[in-house]
Design brief:
It is a single chain. 29% of the residues lie in helices and 23% in strands. By secondary structure, the chain is α+β, with helices and mostly antiparallel strands. The protein binds flavin-adenine dinucleotide.
Length: 453
């Protein structure tokens, strides 16, 4: 990025905007998908910028405190996701298992260092505002910065905002039903007595559930590790006493790498639009209220939490579902159930469809179990209309059922990695992303450690 933050000017709607930089690839949104896309693009020789509105990387993984990589199946997760998890593990900041918990502060630092080592430029405190499109081709993005509105030019933009903000602004078609999954603010508690929690679970197995159907929790790590939901009777009784006000019938939790720390994923609010600042504000206020109520309830009622304290509440409410682009292919729940394979597969995954009901009685959540590996086609990353834009992470092209699986962090990292490599191939071959040679793309991904069928 240039020192004086201006390498030219552009007149847009009679308004002169400073152009602050020109990149091969600009990635908007530094969640897990954006981090992975940026590392991949830069390592493949692209001058790469990662833009983020917050002051750290990670998105839902850090500011949302979603501190467990779900579905880290060792047969499917390779490439960037594995590299980052290995890095966290070396710092003692992750337990590597199918559901891998990690420390969010170490994540912020390690992921940032990984990006810098990969020669990615990072621009924090810059919110995507609008996109420059000429003749149906994306040419750059407008950023709302402390300095004012600025323009960054790019050969290819990768939208990893989670909400498809860039794609929507560029006129890409998207789906956004009014039955999106509810939002949740995760919180962490400290000073929990793990042997007591485990003893309660072991003696009340009928009070718990986990994502692969049966209780698959295990305590074979030291410190012990599990992630599950339950405490059904305690919650029912707490609600009957009026002590607990929660639109949910279970508490989902698990221990974190630092002894005594737990994450709690149980607050929820349905019927909210995650692309509206007004509705997000309502959700933040309601989620903080629920979080404190649940924490107090846990201290009083859940064995092992008597001396626990609230450590922190996510600074951004966790948004599970908003826009999903209409891409060249829409991945479906049926594709997942049948273990579909595609010639243009850029990732494989096998996590169940984790679908939380939208509102009311449906507030409980269900796991659409799958027992097969499925492919994610490259076409799910390519919007139907506009050129020079790719989409990765939570907002790829899928129906709501498939999204219940693809929204998990390992999968977001996999689609991010593919988008970064595809952008580099497109630029090197002088074609738009839609026309990238998928055989070459797949070969490049495999060469850098991605497992494909
Ligand atoms: C409550 C909850 C529980 C979950 N549980 C799990 C779980 O246990 N395990 C699991 O693997 N997954 C889980 N998920 C899913 C997973 O965490 C997310 O789907 C995933 O992290 C999304 O990653 P992403 O990179 O696509 O988007 P995000 O994490 O949303 O990142 C998007 C980034 O873009 C930035 N951004 C957005 N808009 C703009 C803008 N206009 N300008 C600049 N920057 C912008 C954001 O600040 C953010 O950093 C859960 C999600 C939620 C909400």
């Amino acid at each position: 990025m240039s020192g004086d933050y201006s390498i030219g000017k552009k007149i847009v709607h009679n308004y002169e905007v400073s152009i602050i930089a020109e990149y091969d690839v600009v990635i908007v949104g530094a969640g897990v998908a954006g981090i992975s896309a940026a590392v991949a693009a830069s390592r493949n020789g692209m001058k790469t910028l990662l833009v983020e509105r917050d002051g750290c990387v990670g998105g839902t993984a850090t500011t949302g405190l979603m501190v467990v990589f779900m579905g880290v199946s060792f047969s499917t997760i390779r490439g960037n996701c594995k590299e980052l998890i290995d890095r966290l593990e070396r710092k003692g900041a992750a337990f590597v298992a199918e559901n891998t918990p990690f420390d969010p502060e170490v994540f912020k630092f390690e992921a940032e260092q990984w990006l810098l080592e990969s020669n990615v430029d990072i621009l924090y405190h810059a919110a995507f505002s609008d996109v420059l499109v000429e003749n149906d081709c994306v040419k750059g993005i407008f950023l709302q910065m402390k300095e004012g509105m600025r323009l960054v030019l790019a050969k290819i933009v990768i939208d990893t905002t989670g909400d498809a903000d860039v794609a929507a602004a560029a006129g890409v078609d998207f789906q956004f039903t009014n039955h999106v999954q509810p939002m949740t603010s995760i919180f962490r508690m400290d000073n929990v007595n793990t042997p007591e929690v485990i003893s309660y679970i072991e003696n009340h197995k009928d009070q718990f559930f986990s994502q692969r159907g049966q209780i698959t929790w295990k305590v074979d790590h030291n410190p012990p590790f599990f992630t599950l939901g339950g405490f059904f009777d305690l919650i029912k009784e707490g609600k009957e006493r009026g002590e607990l006000v929660l639109p949910h019938d279970s508490i989902w939790l698990g221990p974190l790498p630092r002894a005594g720390q737990y994450y709690v994923n149980t607050t929820r609010i349905g019927g909210m639009d995650g692309t509206s600042s007004i509705e997000l504000s309502k959700a933040e206020i309601e989620m903080r209220k629920q979080a404190w109520n649940v924490a107090e309830f846990m201290k009083k009622n859940i064995p092992g939490f008597e001396n626990a304290e609230m450590l922190d509440i996510a600074v951004r409410v966790g948004v599970r579902e908003t826009r999903k682009i209409i891409g060249e292919y829409i991945l479906t729940g049926e594709d997942l159930e049948s273990g579909a394979s595609f010639k243009d597969a850029i990732a494989i995954y096998d996590f169940p469809m984790d679908i939380h009901g939208a509102v009311g009685k449906e507030e409980t959540h269900s796991w659409g179990l799958i027992d097969k590996v499925y492919d994610i086609p490259y076409r799910c990353l390519i919007p139907t209309k506009v050129e020079n834009i790719l989409v990765a992470g939570r907002c790829i092209s899928s129906d709501s059922r498939a999204h219940g699986s693809t929204r998990s962090m390992p999968c977001c990292m996999a689609t991010g990695e593919a988008a970064g490599v595809a952008a580099s191939l497109a630029i090197k071959s002088n074609v738009v992303p839609r026309n990238v040679n998928v055989e070459n793309l797949r070969a490049l991904l495999q060469a850098q450690g991605v497992l494909l069928r």
